[in-house]
Amino acid sequence: MNQAVIGAQWGDEGKGKIVDFLAGKKTVGAVVRCQGGNNAGHTVVVGGEKHAFHLLPSGILYKDKLCVIGSGVVIDPEVLLGEIEKLEERVGNKHARIVISSKANLIMPWHKIRDGISGGAIGTTGRGIGPVYEDMVGRRGIRLMDTDNKVRFKERVETELKWNKKLIKLMGGNLRQSGQAITENYGKILTKIKANKRVEIGEVSVILDQLSKQGRGLVFEGAQATLLDINHGTYPFVTSSSCSLGGIYTGTGFRPRDLKVYGVVKAYATRVGAGPFPTELNDKTGSRLREVGHEFGTTTGRPRRCGWLDLTVVRYSGLINGLDSLMVTKLDVLTGLKQVKMATAYIIGKEKVKLFNPDLEKLKKAKVVYETIAGWQEDIGKIRRFLDLPRGAQHYIKRMEALSGMPVSLIGVGPERDQIIKR
Ligand code: IMP
């Protein structure tokens, strides 16, 4: 069986922990990233030690698995090398083998500068993500395969640099580096990556097909989330890739058969950067969720905006991704609250709307309808069976299921790998 782990809200749902958990099964052969870049931040906690990954798939700590970076992922080589080196300082070469698509686009210095100038209104991570995807779609991208031949790579850099210098000047910035310096720097970094015996660059479709034919399961690790999807999210307050299910197909060139699709839902909601967030809490409860849930960006350190769980959003993600079940994370963060709330619908004009609609004008007028549930005070971090959860927590999950129309298959009750309840 293959499994896809997709963010059902605005990202940071705790997908890394879920992917790490699923990847531990013997039948799983590979963990696959299909889109996004180092705008993502996935945290895995093992034995009290925190591992934060941006580009490397969350299954990287399993040495007998493959970690695949598909063609839909955009790569900043310096970040990738840094992440591999940091990981190897801790675990040596006892990590998953890394396979990278030769078709992946590279984040170049001009992408980061352009993002720095134009990304402010959206509140981007500033990693060059929007501009690199712009260039990919505009057929101006530089791909990993373009770096194999030094002369060709230099030519590509010089061509793109020429107009990027002009563009950046028009945007009010400055790109000083020469083509020679960029080519040399990238060349050095890429040579180190390619020389690593645990790294292979190739045709990801073939590798995934082979694994599948051998009966090994694949875990597809979504980055960002459905409401940040370039097509289906709260456009233009989105990232520039397909974070919903479709991204798996375009970002790997492989059709996984027998696929279960899981939507990861944090027990409350968070959002980083600008854009609509109808259930946002700008009060003490919001601050409490931020503090207890450590809601500060893994990538940028920015405080995340916090609010109540929004079931209109979860239903919408269910629809867009054809979710088979929900995996709820961070239920423990709600412990200690007298009451917890979940949004069940919006009133827009005279209409009661149950399905999220990413139309910004409609969202501005939306009044949120909440259901209030009595909270629970008991520590739930050590609980491993659903029926052992306090009544309030059980009720919260059951209401999520009833109101979203989807079953909850897994519940996270703490940051550690094993703090999970199977339902
Ligand atoms: P970009 O992906 O850097 O272009 O940023 C676009 C929007 O997506 C911004 O609001 C970011 O905060 C948000 N974003 C990008 N990556 C993540 C993520 O991994 N988690 C949460 N939000 C993200």
Top keywords for this entry?
423 residues; alpha/beta; 20 strands; 33% helix; 22% strand; binds inosinic acid
Give an overview in words.
- By secondary structure, this protein is an alpha/beta fold.
- Helix content is 33%, strand content 22%.
- The protein is built from twelve helices and 20 strands.
- A ten-stranded mixed β-sheet has the order 9-7-5-2-10-1-11-15-19-20, sandwiched between helices.
- A hairpin with a 7-residue loop joins strand 19 (408-412) and strand 20 (420-422).
- Helix 3 crosses helix 4 (129-137).
- The chain starts with a strand and ends with a strand.
- The structure holds inosinic acid.
- Residues 11-12, 39-41, 122-125, 127, 129-130, 223-224, 228, 239-240, 272-273 line the site of inosinic acid (IMP).
Q: State which percent range the strand residues make up.
A: 15-25%
Tally the beta strands.
Answer: 20
Form type: globular
Q: Kindly state the percentage of residues in helix.
A: 25-40%
Largest sheet: 10 strands, mixed
Ions, cofactors, ligands: which are bound?
Answer: inosinic acid
- Give the uncertain stretches in residue-range form: none
What's the end-to-end separation, in Å? 19 Å
Give the overall pLDDT as a whole number. Answer: 96
Structural class call reads alpha/beta
Please give the radius of gyration in angstroms. Answer: 22 Å
